[in-house]
Design brief:
Strand 16 and strand 17 (about 555-560) form a beta hairpin. The chain has 16 helices and 17 strands. The chain is α+β, with helices and mostly antiparallel strands and about 575 residues long. The radius of gyration is 61 Å and the shape is elongated. The termini are far apart. Helices cover about 45% and strands about 20% of the residues. The longest helix has about 80 residues, at about 295-370. The chain has four domains: about 25-155, 2-Layer Sandwich (Beta-Lactamase), CATH 3.30.450; about 185-290, Beta-Lactamase (2-Layer Sandwich); about 325-410, Helix Hairpins, CATH 1.10.287; about 410-575, Heat Shock Protein 90 (2-Layer Sandwich). The chain has a five-stranded antiparallel beta sheet with strand order 2-1-5-4-3, sandwiched between helices.
């Protein structure tokens, strides 16, 4: 017996003349009719079998115990099991994960004799998840119920397509909502036109910028409404409109110097971009995005005016610089003359002025030696004062010569070992150091590009000041040190003492010529030493300053470049 074939559902009554069929006589008409009926039934059964097996829907038949009696190929594909594995088994044994409970529906149809149509089931079946649409109906003859049949349509792909469509619609809806949110809230005006140039969409910014409501613009020709004239208010033909040219050519258009006209008739400058709308490879319209560039134009105009004003200022400044250069050239000429005069003065001071001064001192000394006894007390006092004044005059002339020679007798820069210079200075001042009972410490000093004679003069003046301006009864302590910058470009030379110090409010004053903070009766000197130090520092492209408090000593700080590149001529020219 073929378990894959349907069991016959018709009953055939035995023939009344069947017992005589084999006696060789002709068949009675009734037997022939019966045989013909059987042949027709077999043909119909074969036809039904073919239709059942090849049908695109699944078919399953269950007996009255609700066990599989027969299935077709489509049902076998969906269940993932061959037909013979279904025979005599219940639905839940073959497809346990299908929901809702399939057998409840089979039982209800069997017991009620009423079909249940279009029931949706889903779950794991065979090698994948399936969505099923099932119709269940009773199978019976006129006399009795033979079982229950089910027609199963696999809706899996359809459901998947529907879900994909819903997802796509949801994403599209989100995108449309996002796009609408952007276009509604963006500051730029955006509108769309069809092939004839009539508005099909406008955003709120377009309404605000143009002064028209959306209802007033929809369906209107936007060129005729807002773009009919140039920035100079001359006529603008529609055939020449670049916003509509994009519809004819399909090529985007951009412009940053055009104008639109508002509802109130006012014209304002705009920058815009027009992009074609394409459907099925053909242009069906355009989208225009634009913004008001009034402020930009105003800024450009302000920039132009500023540029013109700047050019005028530059011209005026250039003229002023040319005048200043001319004046500087004249000043340089005058400076050269002054330098020559200063050199002449130095020559005079070193020869002509000192010659009579030496005679005064010489004859004064001779008078004091040979004729002092014949002089009255007043005469001896006058002679002593004359000799003291001549000595001060000699010192003053020598100091002035030193000050002038910083530039007139300057030497070229060379590599100078400041440590060696400092040792030489301390050797020269050895007597003064011993007389003052001073303690002088010398820390490491660098080698720099400088005039060696002037470096010696600089350190000698600073150390000499530290020994001179000491506290009464207190042995001087002098420390000479230096610090080089991290980039090795400059060095800072420090001469520190424990002397009488000074109030820093006089800081600028102490470096000027002939400026003294103390009378000649307290401390000797002409007040030129620190002025010489400043002039030397400036000639070397550096500076000098000091830190001090009255009664607490002083620290003089000289900052000088480590190296010079053709600085000599520049500095000398400025001196």
């Amino acid at each position: 017996m073929d378990l894959g074939k349907a069991i016959g559902f018709s009953e055939v009554a035995p023939s009344e003349t069947g017992a005589q069929a084999g006696k060789g006589s002709a068949r009675p008409p009734r037997e022939e009719q019966l045989a013909e009926a059987l042949r027709s039934r077999e043909e119909i059964s074969a036809l039904l079998d073919t239709l059942l097996e090849k049908a695109p829907a699944g078919f399953a038949f269950f007996n009255n115990d609700l066990r599989f009696l027969r299935i077709n190929e489509e049902f076998s594909r969906m269940s993932g099991a061959p037909p013979h594995e279904h025979w005599g088994r219940r639905f839940a044994e073959i497809l346990p994960e299908i929901r809702p409970n399939f057998e409840d529906h089979l039982r209800r149809v069997r017991d009620s004799g009423k079909p249940e149509l279009r029931i949706e089931f889903s779950g794991q079946a065979g090698h994948g998840y399936h969505d099923l649409l099932v119709s269940i109906y009773p199978v019976r003859t006129e006399k009795r119920l033979l079982g229950v049949g089910a027609v199963v349509v696999d809706l899996t792909e359809q459901k998947r397509a529907e879900r994909s469509l819903r997802d796509a619609q949801r994403r599209l809806g989100g995108q449309l909502a996002f796009t609408r949110s952007v276009t509604d809230n963006i500051a730029e005006g955006i509108y769309a036109v069809d092939q004839s140039g009539k508005a099909t969409m406008v955003n709120p910014a377009t309404e605000r910028l143009l002064g028209y409501s959306a209802a007033e613009m929809m369906g209107r020709d936007m060129h005729e409404l807002v773009h009919f004239q140039h920035a100079d208010q001359s006529a603008f033909n529609k055939e020449d409109c670049p916003l509509l040219r994009v519809i004819r050519t399909g090529q985007p258009v951009r412009a940053d110097d055009d104008s639109f006209t508002r509802k109130d008739g006012s014209v304002f400058p705009v920058a815009y971009a027009s992009t074609p709308l394409i459907e099925d490879d053909r242009v069906v319209g355009a989208v225009v995005a634009f913004h008001d560039i009034t402020h930009q134009k105003a800024a450009e105009e302000a920039l132009r005016r500023s540029r013109d004003e700047l050019e005028q200022l530059v011209d005026a400044r250039t003229a002023a610089l040319q005048n200043a250069a001319s004046e500087l050239q004249s000043a340089n000429v005058r400076l050269e003359v002054s330098n020559r005069e200063l050199q002449d003065f130095a020559s005079v001071a070193s020869h002509d002025l000192q010659e009579p001064l030496r005679k005064i001192q010489a004859f004064g000394d001779r008078l004091s030696t040979t004729n002092a006894a014949t002089l009255s007390n007043d005469g001896q006092d006058y002679l002593k004062r004359m000799l003291n004044a001549a000595g001060r005059m000699q010192t003053l002339i020598n100091d002035l010569l030193s000050f002038s020679r910083i530039t007139t007798k300057a030497q070229p820069f060379s590599k100078v070992d400041l440590a060696q210079i400092a040792r030489d200075v301390l050797g020269d001042l050895e007597t003064a150091v011993e007389r003052a009972g001073a303690a002088v410490s010398l820390e490491p000093l660098p080698t720099i590009d400088a005039d060696p004679m002037q470096m010696r003069q600089l350190l000698q003046n600073l150390v000499g000041n530290a020994l001179k301006f000491r506290k009464p009864g207190v042995a001087p302590i002098v420390r000479i040190s230096a610090e080089v910058s991290s980039d090795n470009q400059t060095c800072m030379i420090c001469v520190c003492d424990n002397g009488i110090g000074f109030d820093e409010k006089y800081l600028d004053r102490i470096f000027n010529v002939f400026q003294r903070l103390h009378g000649r009766g307290s401390y000797e000197g002409t007040g030129i030493g620190l002025a010489v130090c400043r002039k030397i520092a400036e000639r070397h492209g550096g500076s000098i300053t000091a830190r001090s408090k009255s009664g607490e000593g002083a620290t003089f700080i000289v900052t000088l470049p480590m190296q010079h590149e053709k600085v000599e001529e520049t500095i000398s020219g400025q001196s």
